[in-house]
């Protein structure tokens, strides 16, 4: 099975946090798996950064990655669309299966991988082009068919930005506010009709009002997309995610350390009755 075949088939205390947890409607068991990582590891040169990650990510859900700085959260989600390929000296071990297809297999095209699995970064990074050209850039580059004006409008509506910019599409994207720029980056990601959107701390540089707008947008987007978010804000994870993965650091006798997945479960379980004492220590603020 190839990636193209798949594409055709699939289109700060614990008490305070608990109050904002988004309930899970049903158990993840039996839900369609989009990603399955098997003994995933990442090495930068001779330094092990992440080891032994096994988890499944489910369709049309928001999955949050939490944990202390340096524990491999961003490294992990960058494995999901092969962004780590762009870092010199990186070696990825194990498997990352996307709808059963090995993303690191010999027949997987990294460009197609990144089209199917879009990414939004920590800080808004609009191109120094017009709002319209920001959204149209990737579809034009990829030679996607269809009416470009309609595609741009659809993407901006999907990012809840159309009504704010429809009368100034030819203005520079840099004239937008920070929150609008981040939503533009989301529009840019969905303009190529991905299956998954990865968000690496998408609200960390935004004010509370813009953060709330991004969170509301994520809830809307999950009806069409699968979302994976890295966040240092545990309240945010509790508000938006149905599933949460807690990463931490494994310390070794020689002083080295690497990121590991400690626990992965429904968000309400992670924040109210975690199985691992390390998870409990982190979500209750005793460390991290």
Written description of the protein model:
With 288 residues, the protein is α/β, with parallel strands linked by helices. The chain has one domain: Rossmann fold, CATH 3.40.50. Helix content is 35%, strand content 25%. α5 packs across α6. The termini are far apart. About 7% of the residues have low confidence.
Short characterization:
This protein is α/β, with parallel strands linked by helices and about 290 residues long. Helix content is about 35%, strand content about 25%.
Helix content: 25-40%
Number of helical segments? 12
User: Given the helix and strand composition, which structural class is it?
Assistant: alpha/beta
What is the residue-mean pLDDT, rounded to a whole number? 88
Regions with little confidence, pLDDT below 50 for 5+ residues: 10-28
Task: Determine the CATH superfamily.
Answer: P-loop containing nucleotide triphosphate hydrolases
Reading side by side through the largest sheet, how are the strands ordered?
6-7-8-3-9-10
Overall structural domain count = 1
């Amino acid at each position: 099975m190839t990636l193209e075949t798949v594409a055709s088939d699939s289109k700060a205390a614990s008490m305070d946090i608990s109050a904002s947890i988004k309930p899970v409607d049903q158990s993840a068991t039996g839900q369609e798996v989009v990603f399955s990582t098997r003994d995933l590891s990442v090495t930068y040169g001779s330094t092990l950064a992440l080891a032994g990650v096994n988890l499944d990510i489910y369709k049309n859900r928001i999955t949050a990655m939490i944990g202390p700085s340096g524990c491999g959260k961003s490294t992990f989600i960058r494995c999901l669309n092969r962004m780590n390929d762009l870092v010199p000296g990186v070696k990825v071990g194990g498997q990352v299966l996307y709808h059963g297809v090995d993303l690191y297999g010999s027949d997987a095209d990294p460009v197609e991988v990144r089209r199917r699995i879009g990414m939004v970064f920590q800080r808004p990074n609009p191109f120094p082009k017009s709002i319209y050209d920001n959204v149209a850039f990737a579809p034009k580059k990829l030679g996607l068919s269809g009416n470009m004006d309609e595609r741009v409008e659809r993407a901006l509506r999907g990012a809840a930005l159309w009504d704010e910019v429809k009368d100034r599409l030819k203005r520079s994207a840099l004239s937008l506010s920070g929150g609008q720029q981040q939503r533009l980056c989301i529009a840019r990601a969905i303009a190529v009709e991905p299956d998954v959107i990865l968000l690496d701390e998408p609200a960390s540089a935004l004010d509370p009002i813009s953060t709330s707008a991004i969170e509301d947008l994520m809830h809307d987007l999950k009806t069409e997309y699968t979302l994976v978010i890295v966040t240092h804000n545990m309240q945010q994870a509790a508000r938006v995610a149905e599933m949460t993965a807690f990463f931490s650091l494994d310390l070794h006798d020689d002083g080295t350390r690497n990121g590991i997945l400690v626990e992965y479960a429904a968000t309400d379980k992670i924040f109210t009755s975690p199985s691992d004492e390390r998870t409990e220590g982190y979500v209750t603020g005793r460390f991290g």
